[in-house]
Design brief:
Layout: E1 2-7, E2 14-26, E3 29-41, H1 44-53, H2 61-84, E4 93-96, E5 99-106, E6 109-116, H3 119-126, E7 130-132, H4 136-140, H5 150-156, E8 162-167, E9 170-176, E10 203-210, H6 212-222, H7 234-238, H8 243-250, H9 270-277, H10 284-305, E11 310-314, H11 321-331, E12 335-338, H12 349-362, H13 370-373, E13 383-385, E14 403-406
Parallel strand pairs: 1-4, 3-14, 4-7, 8-11, 11-12
Antiparallel strand pairs: 1-2, 2-3, 5-6, 7-13, 8-9, 9-10
Length: 409
């Protein structure tokens, strides 16, 4: 199948659409041939409308309805560009993550998650069937619905001691475990699929803490709203870490929760930052330096806690050179490289994830990484929206992939 994986992350700057050909090449083995990535920037007015709807804002239902429609139309346009470009006019399915506007977590438990960007608009624009709403079923099964990227990491990471880090609004980590050592995932028969007992490689995954979520807010303050990015980490590099503020930031109950766990901008937002500053008005560059150090310390501490030897990094945070430099300085002997070393370019990784999850969904393969989400059992992810043609699904596949072979032209 030729899949288009569609993603808009917590930076809200663009929709990324990755085209990939996927096939079950052998029992337990999956091949993926990436065909290209198309990034469509958010129209400024749509991005402003989205930002105004994010926590801690209280948003009426009418505005959410309009935003859901506008995002669906925008994602349809992004998918159509990928269809006409690297897909060369042919694709079988679109897998759309949507735009997260709220992730309902209380303490150690997730209760719900909301992604907007109505799939019907994507199907109407492209004529293709769409898989969407990937997170909700995992939450219903007792999981956090995040971080789903661990499903791809489990197939990419070489072995124990290797980890994958995504630096987006939130920093999330996947750790490859020795087979048999992961949280107990029941067989697919126990999950109600009627299939066998093979399982994907064992991983542990969780949201470590904030990355761009707080850094971008501080950048907006520093520039009086002209920019939400500390380009290259230049301002943080000029600043000095405020150790007292850093200690206050680290004194957050979230960091003491055991994984699996998840968080988001519902917790780490502008109001949170104002509260932690407790009336102080630090130099903007010092604030950016401190927030950058917070992320570097959280990730480096996690690397040590899990005994990692190698860390493969992706996400927009890679463009923050000061952040990556501080992470290397704090991580000691951990080898830190970007995800290209695994065969996947950092900018395409998450969009390829949803191409993979969509492919597994239409083949009836449960794909929630229970070692990362904390779900009670494996479940089928996603809801299906037909395209213009009648919906035809392939025969279910009896065995989940344990190995991913990446092919490049």
């Amino acid at each position: 199948m030729r899949m288009i994986g569609l993603l808009s992350g917590t930076s809200h700057d663009a929709a990324d659409a990755a085209v990939a050909d996927l096939d079950f090449s052998a029992p337990g083995e999956l091949t993926m041939r990436p065909r290209g990535l198309v990034s469509t920037p958010f129209p400024p007015d749509l991005r402003a409308e989205l930002l105004a709807a994010l926590p801690p804002a209280a948003v009426p239902a009418g505005r959410l309805c309009r935003l859901d429609t506008r995002l669906g139309r925008f994602f349809g346009t992004a998918a159509a560009r990928a269809l006409a470009g690297p897909a060369e006019g042919r694709a079988d399915w679109i897998a759309s993550h949507g735009q997260t506007v709220y992730h309902w977590v209380e303490g150690a438990r997730a209760h719900g998650t909301l992604q907007l960007g109505a799939a019907a608009w994507i199907a109407e624009t492209t004529g293709l069937p769409v898989v969407s709403d990937f997170r909700g079923r995992d939450v219903a099964a007792g999981g956090h619905g995040a971080p789903l990227v661990a499903a791809l990491d489990a197939l990419l990471l070489p072995g124990p001691g290797h980890g994958a880090l995504n630096l987006g609004g939130i920093a999330n980590l996947t750790v490859r475990l020795p087979d048999g050592d992961g949280p107990g995932a029941p067989s697919r028969r126990e999950a109600g699929s009627g299939a066998g007992t093979a399982a994907a490689p064992a991983v542990l995954g969780y949201d470590v803490g904030p990355a761009g979520a707080l850094i971008d807010e501080a950048a907006a303050w520093a520039t009086q709203g002209e920019s939400r990015v500390d380009t290259g980490g230049a301002r943080a590099a000029r600043g000095t870490v405020d150790e007292r503020l850093l200690a206050r930031l680290l004194d957050d109950p979230y960091y003491r929760l055991p994984p699996p766990k998840s968080t988001g901008k519902e917790h780490f937002h502008a109001g949170y930052l104002r509260d932690r500053l407790a009336g102080a008005r630090p130099d903007p560059d010092d604030l950016l330096a401190t927030l950058t150090e917070l992320t570097a310390r959280l990730v480096a501490d996690a690397c040590r806690a899990h005994g990692l030897s190698d860390l493969y990094v992706s996400g927009g945070g890679l463009r923050n050179h000061h952040l990556t430099a501080r992470l290397r300085a704090r991580a000691g002997n951990v080898r830190i490289v970007d995800s290209t070393a695994l065969g996947v370019a950092p900018q395409e990784k998450e969009a390829l994830l949803f191409a993979l999850l969509g492919f597994l969904a239409v083949h009836g393969v449960p794909a929630n990484p229970v070692g990362a989400t904390g779900a009670r059992h494996l479940v089928l992810l996603g809801s299906l929206t037909p395209g213009r043609a009648p919906l035809r699904l392939p025969d279910p596949v009896a065995e989940p992939p344990r190995r991913l072979v990446l092919l490049r032209d």
